[in-house]
Amino acid sequence: MGYAFEETYQSKERKGFFKIMNIAVKKSFLKGTINVPGDKSISHRAVMLGAIAKGITRVKNFLNSEDTRRTIKAFRQMGVKISVIESECSGRVYSACSGRVDSACSDREIIIEGKGPYLKKPKGKIDAGNSGTTIRLLAGILAGQPFTSCITGDKSLCFRPMRRIILPLRKMGARIKARQDNYAPIYVRGGNLKPLSSPHKLEIASAQLKSCVLLAHLYTGKKIELIEPEKSRDHTERMLKYFGANIKVKGRHIILNPDSSLSGRVISIPGDISSAAFFIIGAIITKNSEVFIKKVGINPTRMEILSVLQKMGANVQLDNKSMEGGEPVADISIISSGLKGISIRGKSIPLIIDEIPILTVAATQARGKTVIRDAIELRIKETDRIKSMVTELKKMGADIRELRDGMVINGPTQLKGADLNSYADHRTAMALVIAGLIAESRHSAKSRPSGRGSANGKTTIHDVECINTSSPEFAKILKKLGADISIAKDDPPTLKLRRAGERRLIIAIDGPAGSGKSTVAKEIAKKSGYVYLDTGAMYRALTLKAMRKKVNLRSPKALVNLAEKTKISFKGEKVFLDNRDVSAEIRAPSVSNNTHFIATVPGVRERMKILQRKMGDRGGIVAEGRDMGTIIFPNAHRKFYLDAKIMVRAKRRYKELKEKEYSATFKKVLQDTIRRDKRDSERDIAPLRKAKDAVLIDTTNMTIKEVVQRCQVLTNDKYQD
Predict the structure, then answer these.
(1) Which residues does the annotation say bind 3-phosphoshikimate (predicted)?
(2) Does residue 514 have a known ligand-binding role?
């Protein structure tokens, strides 16, 4: 038997943060006094206005999260000097983006040496990571700069709509290019801005859109009146006034006259009420809980979460109200309370859009029906939060139904421990952790879902490193309050000599059609005693089912519904669709030519990603496809990208079809291969590309045996002591 080397499957550590693989939580109650991290929205804005103000700005209780660090790094790229002081650690001053800042420190200050309104042209692209606030607000500042810049983000951010900010900035004279005129990366050529016609009605109630336009208008020198359709968060207006701007707010009307410069200030960031909402609702729904949260921001445009909870019957009180840096703050006390269902819609929604995931958890414990409407904006957040919350809470036994623009929840229901997915969304992840605090065990083996953490009431939420984007201390605070919570952190990888049959490594193989990846993957799996995961076959199987059932292949909704009702499994190299062997049928040209309709639907890919990652949860697999190393298993132990000249790949495909007695001409196969390459590489969702750390192998003049040996040698070389 051959040998392979085992490496614990862990995600790579980001500078300044440990990565959390999963969180396991058991039924608990909460008691204690806490401080929540600084408000993320205000932290972003403090950096931005401090950077374009004149003089020194000192920001206390700054939220040091992945998102806010992206904003700091962006301005450092443009010549602004920013330092971070970790006063509770060693008191030393660190470079803000050095990667050496410890997220366990709780009392942070940053010092910004403001450059005034005009900044230095950045070297290279500005990477906003997963931060919508960074990319949308910064675009307004970049529109006023006399240079061309590019701002982009991670995969999730690059699929969030940006046309809402692009159109008004273009009207002001900025020259902007974006992918499909709606998505990042966004190229901005700024300078010489002209004001929008005043009064200007904003198309949607969005604090990010409003802030982007206000920041851009600082560079016009002209007065502007903006009118919101509904009132949204007003942190930008308050902070502009605090920095010296001539700005007035009357209800939904904002009047900005940029006739004065901004000056550096000392700012104390209040606790983030969006972060506090998780602990507030955690205390409300768990029996015998009592929590006191100090110095939380109670901005009137953020207080709706408390108003909604009080309408539901929650026992929440405010004490010690004061003002800090233009923002109202107070202490919040919470006691366990019984809740009743209510209707949440209309004007309330823009004011609680970030709190809806955790409100959904509260609604499962409310007596009667809770209806949430007018919240379609949730579908274009870091993930589709309507879909993510409905799907995962159903796994826990919640009586919840998805609507186009919201959901209906009937309660109270006793939630059960389950294996859950975060969808790489921080608010979904944290809401599900709180749900786990009230989950009971499943007494009947028949009622247990597959996976870990359900039989004894334990709830496990996977893929939760996303929590670092907004609340890196979330788990630490829950532990302080007494929650029974365990965290799996990254440790340095340990290498041990293992027989391949013990199934630990994850090997990802990507490449275009005809490159040999399927055959190579099968051989490596066979020789190593690993599981062969043919992800392309999963999409083919779903395509076959859609064709049989005459489902509209151009209807994403219909395809997502079909995917959710479909079972796909593997036994050796055989593929089973709803327990029926379809290994041969899915290779038909008619299926191949229609698979792209399925593979480009985000909801279908999300469903497949969950299934595929679950299959690889324990390692010991060889996964092949088109996004294995980039999307599905970004931390695979070894990645390969196979390619070959297009004529060679077309000949291989033609030979395969002839051997299976399908009618085909070489000319038609070559045309199909060219079209497929173009389609796979240019599609918006998970395009075919080589992972940065993948080994490229040109198989044009190699035999299958030679390719397999090459992959095995490279894998063993990497994991040899």
Answers:
(1) 40-41, 45, 206, 208, 354, 381
(2) yes
